[in-house]
Design goal:
Structural class: alpha+beta
Mean pLDDT: 85
Strand order of the largest sheet: 3-2-1-13-12-11-10-9-8
Shape: elongated
Number of strands: 22
Largest sheet: 9 strands, antiparallel
Number of helices: 16
Radius of gyration: 28 Å
Distance between the termini: 61 Å
């Protein structure tokens, strides 16, 4: 019945070819091609046919590329883009209102690509650089710039207006901030890790024999017209070339909170950000970050994007409730009705049958590439800088300063000499490199943010040195311990393949961060003040019995955290203050030859 419905729709509305897939349970539950990718050569349209371009569905990939840099702390979403661009993009009607990254991602930037022209269609391979194209449109003095056609007359951030040029600018920001061409950045950080072979932004990147042709049906002459293959200058907003099979892997990654087959592309918090409804555009239709949300589409809910261009129609959506995804490629235009009615009908039919399809006999969507190394110590990264995923990209440590590769290597090789900020810098570098290589960010995002707040606008390592035993030094070492536990995989339930440290004892691993710089007895408590919990960390230079007890102001024992023998090394114990009232408490640590009491402030 599904075949009959699709074939009848194609015949009635003169659709030359299409391919579609249904994704569920981590698999392609169903996929099939119909009709022709190339009428002249009788080449069928299959799930492995490369769509000449997927039009605006490309924007989801472009948003993903930018969010990868966001995860690495290169920028904040509400930062003005002009703080990062080599040229200035400003709405002339509201020159004092900055355009932010967030505005570009949710189409509220006030950049207008309707007043002048939609991007000119070009012979493949003849487009100039993204920088030249954008400056010609968005910068005063540019060949095609005009106040009234380049920008809308409303304040940036105040209204929604779909902007292709805004997403082209996102692509350029990725290019400029990463230090590599946008297409190559996507190739290294998205396509290759997901094994999306024969995928790229230009025809030169893919097998030309496997590309579909874009068509229009000429009713007067009852003939298909081949538009020919074309590209354009603002390519990050719509020019991605990919097959249904490969796009299914990408969609599954989004459906699975950023990871597929052990390969993490986005952190789960970034995917959650993309799936947060922001602006209601029409009843039950919302914008998000790089995607749109239909709260009620024929009885279903969907996150995703569609697209259309000359001879091109695409759909890519997934249901957040039952985690079923649908992709549809069409290489023609609906001649019988305006808009996209036919593709909507086919899409709805796929939605109806999705629940009836079993995945039992289908192979899982997986990747032939080995997993990237992820959680490693700073010692590993110090000795394997050739494996850094972002060799040419400056890394942000703290809230202000960026560090290039040589500076990072110098820090990793720098002796500690009692400077707690050096310890913290080494662990931050290792953690951010691990995230760049595919590790999960969410377990340590609060720790990284706390470190950024503590460092502020100072350079690392901080001079003069921050003593281990100062209040600030204690905070830095506590944050370092938390980062180190992440870097050695302690926080992950599933260890990373290739983790050389996976079998080492936690105490032995954590001790490395001090490089023999912290051998005398010490006590670190963070956070303090605390609302729900704090971590008590201490080091021993030999095995001995340690007592850790918490008392209230009247001297009553509240909790015994430990009273046992600990081996030489660094140890961490958590106290949950959920069942105590706000107030002042005391932590007493005692060994045979040492005793220390610290005040704890609990807030509620």
């Amino acid at each position: 019945p599904l075949d009959n419905f699709i074939l009848n729709s194609m015949a009635n509305h003169h659709i030359p070819g299409l391919a579609a897939s249904i994704i569920k349970d981590g698999k392609i539950a169903w996929t099939k091609g119909y009709g022709y990718a190339n009428i002249e050569k009788n080449i069928p349209f299959t799930p492995n046919t490369i769509h000449a371009q997927i039009a605006s569905v490309s924007k989801v990939v472009t948003a993903t590329a930018l969010l990868k840099l966001y995860e690495q702390g290169v920028f904040q979403l509400d930062d003005p883009i002009n703080n990062y661009l080599p040229f200035t993009v400003t709405n002339p009607y509201f020159p004092n209102v900055p355009i932010t990254f967030h505005m570009l991602l949710n189409h509220t930037s006030s950049i207008n690509d309707y007043g002048l022209f939609y991007s000119p269609y070009l012979i493949p391979g003849t487009a100039g650089t993204l920088s030249d194209f954008l400056q010609s449109i968005l910068v005063p003095g540019g060949e095609f710039y005009a106040d009234s056609t380049s920008f809308f007359n409303y304040s940036p951030g105040s209204e929604f207006n779909y902007s292709n040029y805004g997403f082209a600018l996102i692509g350029y920001l990725v290019e400029y901030l990463s230090g590599m061409p946008f297409d190559e950045y996507c190739n290294q950080n998205i396509f290759q890790p997901l094994c999306l072979n024969n995928t790229g932004w230009h025809f030169s990147d893919v097998d030309s024999n496997a590309v579909s042709r874009p068509y229009f049906y000429d009713d007067a002459n009852s003939a298909w017209i081949d538009y020919g293959l074309y590209e354009y200058g603002d390519y990050p907003d719509g020019q991605l070339k990919i097959s249904v099979t490969n796009l299914s892997k990408f969609l599954l990654m989004l459906m699975n909170n950023g990871i597929v087959d052990g390969i993490r592309i986005l952190d789960s918090t970034s995917v959650a950000l993309m799936k947060t409804p922001e602006l209601e555009l029409a009843p039950n239709i919302f914008s998000g970050i790089g995607m749109f949300y239909y709260a009620d589409y024929g009885g279903f809910q969907y996150w995703g994007h569609n697209g259309g261009d000359l001879g091109i129609r695409t759909e890519m959506w997934f249901n957040p409730n039952n985690l079923t995804g649908i992709i549809l490629f069409i290489n023609g235009e609906d001649d019988a009705v305006s808009g996209c009615t036919t593709q909507d009908d086919i899409f709805c039919q796929l939605s109806y049958v999705a629940d009836t399809i079993s995945t039992n006999s289908q192979p899982a969507l997986n990747c032939s590439y080995a997993e990237f190394p992820c959680q490693h110590s700073k010692t590993y990264w110090k000795n394997h800088n050739d494996e850094w995923a972002l060799n040419s990209v400056p890394m942000k440590l703290g809230t202000t300063h960026f560090y290039g590769q040589n500076k990072l290597l110098n820090i990793l090789n720098k002796p500690i000499k009692g400077n707690a900020s050096t310890v913290l810098a080494k662990q931050l570098i290792a953690a951010k490199l691990n995230v760049a290589q595919g590790s999960e960010l969410s377990p340590i995002i609060s720790t990284i943010n706390s470190a950024n707040d503590l460092i502020g606008n100072r350079k690392l390592p901080i001079q003069p040195a921050i003593s281990f035993f100062s209040s600030e030094g204690s905070q830095m070492l506590a944050l370092s311990l938390q980062l180190a536990s992440y870097n050695y995989g302690v926080l992950n339930t599933k260890p990373c393949n290739g983790n050389a440290n996976a079998n080492r004892d936690e105490e032995e691993q954590l001790e490395d961060i001090y490089e023999n710089g912290l051998t005398e007895q010490s006590l670190i408590i963070s956070p303090n003040p605390l609302s729900s919990f704090t971590t008590v960390s201490f080091s021993l230079n030999e095995s001995e019995n340690v007592s850790l007890k918490i008392f209230d102001v009247d001297g009553r024992l509240i909790k015994t955290l430990a009273s046992t023998v600990f081996e030489e090394g660094v140890h961490s114990i958590e106290w949950k203050a959920e069942n105590v009232n706000a107030g002042i408490y005391f932590l007493k640590v005692q060994t045979a030859a040492y005793s220390k009491t610290e005040k704890l402030i609990v807030t509620k």
